[in-house]
Amino acid sequence: MKPNLKIQRARLDERVKLFLQLLGELINARRLELKMSQAMVAEMAGLSRTAVYNIEHGLVDERSTTLMRVAWALKMSHAGVVATLEHLMLPPEHRPQKRGLKTL
Asked: Which pTM was predicted?
């Protein structure tokens, strides 16, 4: 692999890691807002509690369908999750005015 491609790949890997971390934080915040346990979310989403824990802690790169099952169990829309994560991935100085996470 050429050096420039290695650098680009490393940057992409960093963004993926950040994405998974932010997704986990978003899922965790919403779960706590709804006063649900990881076990409750897992049951509603058809997953194990360990799977929900791993998602919340950014430990796994789950399939998008699995992540959406968790989001739907938490009454979050696909568009809302994506919009929130896109907003959080931007550097603070480039973020548009946020509308709040409760509209998910």
From this structure: 0.75
**Residue 104: band (very low, low, confident or very high) from pLDDT cuts 50, 70, 90:** very low
Give me the chain's average pLDDT, please. 85
70-76: long-range contacts (C-beta < 8 A, 24 or more apart)?
Answer: 70/27, 70/41, 70/45, 71/27, 72/45, 73/41, 73/44, 73/45, 74/27, 74/30, 74/31, 74/34, 74/36, 74/41, 75/34, 75/104, 76/30, 76/104
Distance CA 57, CA 90 (A): 20
